[in-house]
Design goal:
- The protein has 264 residues and is α/β, with parallel strands linked by helices.
- The chain has a single domain, classed as Rossmann fold, CATH 3.40.50.
- Helices cover 45% and strands 18% of the residues.
- It contains eleven helices and eight strands.
- The chain has an eight-stranded mixed sheet with strand order 1-2-4-3-5-6-7-8, sandwiched between helices.
- Helix 3 links the parallel strand 5 and strand 6.
- Helix 4 packs antiparallel against helix 5 and helix 4 runs antiparallel to helix 8.
């Protein structure tokens, strides 16, 4: 189990496959296990790296201070894995982490795929994530995980995968850490807003992907990324919800492979 220590926090990472380096960043759950459905296909062409963000998975269960802190954590993981630069695919919070790495550590990313992510914490997101915080504090991790399922997955997928989702909810409850950890993560993504700097990403090949029925990170955020990052392209998938990387795995993998292989 490879780990690197930064600021007293152990950060877990792993790799599979062979080829150019491709890093996958998870969303608010923060665990590299998010990418289990995607890794086999991507690892046929790339050396795929996943990592557990601080506070989640096999990493130290501590609160986070900001998206920028987690971006610096990722650079520490890259240094430990001896990766000078890599392609990057980030889902939701992982997309924001990728943006922060690109802005604060120029040259470390070769390209950027932003999936189902947000540009800022607007009133809609504050209401939604504020309710998630209240659920965790008052009803605990189990209720939080169940509500998360409703936000992540569209009805058609929930109906087809009830048993799988029940198992996932039980596993995620243990991965999340305590309420203080998860609430700090929610606050970090709400505070993230680097829109005034997006023009600096114009030389970085960027693809934005979002499902039209995403409730947690509605399409208008992806449209803003597309508009504010010079040269960015966008693909909008008809359905799949916030968890489109899982609900439409084959389609998402094809989009990612076409984007990244076109750059190598």
């Amino acid at each position: 189990m490879p780990k690197v220590t930064r600021d007293g926090v152990e950060l877990y990472w792993e790799k599979s496959g062979s080829g150019p380096a491709l890093i996958l960043g998870a969303g608010l759950n923060g665990s590299g296990t998010w990418w289990i459905p995607n890794v086999p296909a991507l690892a046929e062409r790339f050396t795929v790296y996943t990592f557990d963000q601080r506070g989640t998975g096999h990493s130290t269960k501590v609160p986070v201070a900001s998206i920028e802190q987690m971006a610096a954590d990722l650079v520490a993981v890259m240094d430990d894995a001896e990766i000078q630069s890599a392609h990057y695919c980030g889902h939701s919070t992982g997309g924001a982490i990728g943006v922060a790495v690109a802005l604060d550590f120029p040259g470390r990313l070769k390209s950027l795929l932003i999936a189902s992510s947000t540009t800022c914490g607007d009133p809609y997101r504050r209401k939604l994530l504020g309710l998630r915080m209240q659920l965790f504090k008052k009803l605990g991790g189990e209720a939080y995980a169940q509500f998360r399922t409703l936000l992540l997955y569209p009805p058609y997928w929930i109906n087809e995968n009830d048993k799988l989702l029940s198992e996932s909810e039980a596993r995620d409850t243990g991965d999340l850490g305590g309420a203080d950890v998860q609430i700090s993560r929610l606050n970090a993504i709400l505070a993230f807003d680097r829109r005034q700097e997006f023009h600096r990403l114009g030389k970085l090949p960027t693809l934005v992907v979002c499902a039209n029925d995403d409730l947690l990170a509605p399409r208008y955020f992806s449209e803003e990324y597309e508009r504010l990052i010079p040269g960015a392209r966008a693909i909008y998938i008809p359905r799949g919800g916030h968890a489109v990387t899982k609900t439409e795995t084959e389609l998402f993998n094809r989009i990612a492979l076409e984007f990244f292989t076109g750059l190598t």
